[in-house]
Amino acid sequence: MDKPAEQYLVFNGNYLLQSNAVIKSDNRAFLYGDGLFESFRVIKKKAWDIDVHFNRLFYGLEKLKIETASYFNVERIVQHIDQLIEKNDIYSDARVRLAVFRNPGLGYTPEDNQLSYLLTVENTPGEGFSLNPQGLAVDTYHDFKKQINALSGLKLINSQLYVLSGIDARERGLDESLILNEKGNIVESTSSNIFTVSGNVIYTPALNEGCVAGTMRMHVINAAIDLGFKVFECGLTHQRLMNADEVFLTNGVKGIQWVNRYKSKRYFHKVADQLLEALNQQVEERISLEKDPQES
């Protein structure tokens, strides 16, 4: 059996084989978790929602006092993505991860606040967003709580809480753990935002509860309103989940994933199906508008 071809990545504008990429001992992402990342999907060779991800990224860089540069922009990253798709022989959808971190240096107080970046593009099965065939099993994670502050809505490289909640899920035979904030409310899962459905009403944790300001969260809220649902952003309690008809999770790579079990409660996925259909329609419309002039 042939060995899979080596994959390329981009580090500060340079294309490197992943096996040749080396993290130096003064890399601040490695030493201190000093940076942010964004993950999103490529659909039909188009970087889905990249503008929205860049808006969140630049907001986060400002909060972390990491200085931006004129060469670091959407157009340049799209060029990198296109090149990596070609170099890595990707013919279907792909998952993009863009990590941005402060330039190298030792000590908590940096001497250089300029940015470095690392971009990977990896093949992912399927085309477009699809609902998971079997629902997810979830339960709450209690060892550590998520603090509510100005950084709560960002995707920080320092992701220890999510790592530990993922380990907890695996040890308990779950697909995802649900993370609690300092008030004891459910704010998100290990890798996603969370929604519940009761009749014609959809609930999701408010941003001031400490959840990540998810890009897919925003799309689902808007799609639900367009479909005639009432949407409330609020504190999400254990009782809300126990009384819900549906629970589903959302993120920028997988789209919408339905939950079939939380503790003793079982759920359906009718509304998740409707929202996913609306989401994929939006994707198709956006991709049609972004086609190259030669393709029109």
Written account of the structure:
The protein is an alpha+beta fold and 296 residues long. It folds into 2 domains: 8-123, D-amino Acid Aminotransferase, Chain A, domain 1 (2-Layer Sandwich); 136-282, Alpha-Beta Barrel (D-amino Acid Aminotransferase, Chain A, domain 2). Helix content is 28%, strand content 30%. It contains 7 helices and 15 strands. It has helices spanning 28-32, 50-63, 74-87, 160-171, 215-226, 238-243, 270-289; strands at 8-11, 14-17, 35-43, 46-47, 94-102, 115-123, 136-146, 176-181, 186-189, 193-198, 201-205, 230-234, 246-251, 255-262, 265-266. The strands form 2 sheets. Strands 7, 8, 9, 10, 11, 12, 13, 14 and 15 form a 9-stranded mixed beta sheet that branches. The protein has a 6-stranded antiparallel beta sheet with strand order 2-1-6-5-3-4. A hairpin with a 2-residue loop joins strand 14 and strand 15. The model has no long low-confidence stretch (mean pLDDT 94).
Task: Provide a brief overview of the structure.
The protein is an alpha+beta fold and 296 residues long. 28% of the residues lie in helices and 30% in strands.
CATH class of the largest domain: Alpha Beta
Task: Work out the number of β strands.
Answer: 15
Which strand-content bin applies to the residues? 25-35%
**CATH homologous superfamily heading of the largest domain:** D-amino Acid Aminotransferase, subunit A, domain 2
The residue fraction in helices comes out at 25-40%
* CATH fold description of the largest domain: D-amino Acid Aminotransferase, Chain A, domain 2
H/E element sequence: EEHEEHHEEEHEEEEHEHEEEH
Biggest sheet: strands, sense, closure? 9 strands, mixed
